[in-house]
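Thread: "does anyone have the structure for this chain?"

Original post by V.I.:
We have the sequence but no experimental structure in hand. Need at least a predicted one for the grant figures.
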Amino acid sequence: MRQRIGTYITQNSPGEAYKAYVPPSLPPNPALDLLQLEAPLKQATKALAALKKNAKSIPNTTLFLYTYIQKEALLSSQIEGTQTSFSDLILFEQQQEPNVTVDDVEEVSNYIKAIQHGLKRLKKGFPLCLRLLCEIHAILLAGTRGANKMAGEFRRTQNWIGGTRPGTALYVPPPVAHMLACLDRLESFLHDETLPTLLRAGLAHVQFESIHPFLDGNGRLGRLLITLMLCEGKLLNSPILYLSLYLKQHRKVYYALLQEVRTTGNWEAWLIFFLEGVTTTSNQATKATQDIDRLFRADQEKINRLGRSRFTCDQIFTYLKRLPQASVAVIVKQLAITPPTARNALNKLLEAGILEEITEKKRDRVYVYRKYLDILEEGTEPFAPKQRGQERSAPLLGVVPELHHTTMAF
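Reply from O.Q.:
Generated one for you, tokens below.
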């Protein structure tokens, strides 16, 4: 197993030396114990196939797809510590003031744009490569707190995870010179079809996190890489797997297993956890799509019975499937209808039991498609601010200049 552990590079910074980790090439050597992985791999593949099949039968596929990208974006950003909720994201997309900092919501919104860009490029035949990862990274960080951290470019300095300096860090990724070689090998592995796609995605995610090639956004991009690989490998037709829900719920185990791979070379433990996450999340996503489909069909039948109002109500209903919260002002702007028409239709939807009014005001009332929002929000509650620092296992990154180093193997 020692060949799986990689090497440590002794680096010198002012006043101290520290060790940076250089991961070994993939696939692991000695080879994976495929017998140990056989059962969880079979379950995960079956669950993904069921989700893929179920997604094909969903009406309004574009709306469903956008919703699932929203959820994955929200969950992935929450793992990094953002406090954004689904309601905040809706307000932001309606160009209203969210209840948290705009930076938090922009990070989630950028994730949505980034994954859409990546999938669009893949569908047009562009390969999953380092150049594409840089393009996606630039979109992830655009206009946010990380915008000044070389968005779209690989780092040119040493970074670290945890602690105030590399010498006290929990983990120090490879120095820049070694990082570039690691990235080249990772790019080759992305297209090595000797292993099933699911196993390659699990391996590549850890390798990317270990290399940590950017100054910010590595966690989000590393999780996005899983989705891109599953779609490129035809295990999914669209990004309807929100794996970040599982990683968020088991974040301590998640970070511990990433580190265990580096310290012991135990890829099998990580892959079993990863595959169980794919199975669990696929089953949850399948149930959610079925619940949403039933809800939409039932509410559409109610709208069809609303007489002359049903045409405007149907327009609003289509809008609510994308963003399940609205007001008269929002509907007037989005659908280009008059305020009286919007007000009347919203009240009709309220009376039909489809919408819920949450402000209890006579003016500037806000309506929520509560039953739909409840399904979407499952598992997306932000971490409490007072717990955020305690719970995060991957503290903020620091940066030090690249310095002279010598190589040591362990």
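V.I.: this helps a lot. The two ends are 12 Å apart (CA to CA).
O.Q.: and The first strand starts at residue 7 and ends at 13.
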